[in-house]
Amino acid sequence: MCPTLTEPPTGTRIPEDLMGSRLTEEQAAFAAALRDFAKRECGTREQRDALAGDGHEAHHPGLYGRLAELGWLGVCLPEEYGGSGGGLADACLFLEETSYGMVPCGGFITTVITAKAYERFGTERQRREVLTGAVCGDVLAIAMSEPGAGSDVGALRCRARREGDGTWVIDGQKTWISNAHCAKSILLVARTGEDKHGGLTMFHLPVGTAGVEVRGIDTMRGREVNDVFLTGVRLPADAVVGEVDGGWRQLMAGLNYERLFLAANMLGLARRAFDDTVAYVREREQFGRPVGSFQAMRHRIADLATEIECTRLLVREVALDCDARPDRLFPREASMAKLKATETAKRAALEGMQMMGGYGYTTEFEMERHLRAAVVSTVYGGTSEIQRDVIGRTYGL
Ligand SMILES: Cc1cc2nc3c(=O)[nH]c(=O)nc-3n(C[C@H](O)[C@H](O)[C@H](O)COP(=O)(O)OP(=O)(O)OC[C@H]3O[C@@H](n4cnc5c(N)ncnc54)[C@H](O)[C@@H]3O)c2cc1C
């Protein structure tokens, strides 16, 4: 018999079961509220299909607005801009639970990564506009990558020239820009000097600015990334975010956030793929018994469960460490969390598909959605090869 999954399964333990001693009461209540929301809004396959266009739309503006009304989009933004003043661990909880619950709020991740850069380096006027907007549901994007500058971001060529009156004129192309199609503004990294890393600057770029063209890129996941073409784009002198030529240092300062947010998102997906798999192999019978009861399957489930628990401990621990020492960079630990969580999510979805047999490959089940979402997570935000490189270098290699 082939089971039909309509309700989110209940196999993985909820976070506080495992980490109760390190989650505050507020954090445990927040996670529970997020799970309730996900169950109510996205608990059935019909709801998820309606919201996410058969899994091809990662972001639903209406639902995102509801999250804003609940005050959750400002989870780790300062209270003076309408946020809740929480930390990285709180934002990781949000990402883990919404990813587990398949809530189509894909705009959040680039928004929160970008907002944290404005929080640290923006002027008061920029912070007020951008952070307040993010709390209320504006989506933000960040544009570093170019056709010729992927892993080697410092090779980017998009050029910003300053005119006599201080106006910046920008020409170039950005690629792979997540959520630019639904973003209010883009944090653009452009070349302002010849030094590879010391010649980069961040700019606040409203999407509607003349000379900006956003064009979608077709991917196996659907609508998520874009090319952004910049032709004679004119920005005022005060569009600079932080210091002129200080862009690289500013990017490096945000790596804890970026890597941990991506890790938490994939941790949620790994848990979901695992639970969907367990629910299936418990019910699917061959040779007169559930396929999950064969030792070969049981051991794979056990291995996967162990991997996911290790990932959860690592992500949670590094997030709490970062919150405890906000002045410090944790390049090794943040890279480990990103590497481990993304590779685990990919493995969970691939293993899930294998353990579900042919049904895992069909669109009748959601394992193929999990796989499409997980498979690229080891590429964006620094590939697994680059994360390993970063980790290796911290050992002086
Ligand atoms: C879905 C998606 C969303 C994205 N979102 C954004 C975004 O919002 N903003 C943005 O700016 N960018 C974004 N990116 C770009 C992303 O960060 C890059 O794709 C990534 O950094 C890799 O660059 P690349 O694709 O050009 O691959 P390349 O750099 O060309 O790498 C190709 C292969 O070579 C390997 N490689 C490269 N250098 C080394 C090395 N030194 N050692 C070992 N192996 C190496 C890589 O690991 C990879 O396997 C996104 C990409 C994707 C696919």
What do you see in this structure?
- Helices cover 49% and strands 13% of the residues.
- By secondary structure, it is of the alpha+beta class.
- Strands 1-4-5-8 form a four-stranded mixed β-sheet. Strands 2-3-7-6 form a four-stranded antiparallel β-sheet, with no helix packed on it. Strands 9-10 form a two-stranded antiparallel sheet.
- Strand 4 (185-191) and strand 5 form a beta hairpin.
- Helix 5 runs parallel beside helix 9.
- The longest helix has 30 residues, at 295-324.
- The chain is globular, with a radius of gyration of 21 Å.
- The model is unreliable at 1-10 and 13-21 (pLDDT under 50).
- Flavin-adenine dinucleotide is lined by residues 110, 141-145, 150-151, 176-178, 224-225, 376, 379-383, 385-386, 389.
Q: What's the total number of strands?
A: 10
Bound molecules: flavin-adenine dinucleotide
User: How is the quaternary structure best described?
Assistant: single chain
Helical content band: 40-55%
What is the ordering of alpha helices and beta strands? HHHHHHHEEEEEEEEHHEEHHHHH
Structural class by sheet pairing and helices? alpha+beta
Low-confidence regions:
1-10, 13-21
- Overall shape: it is globular
* Order of strands, widest sheet: 1-4-5-8
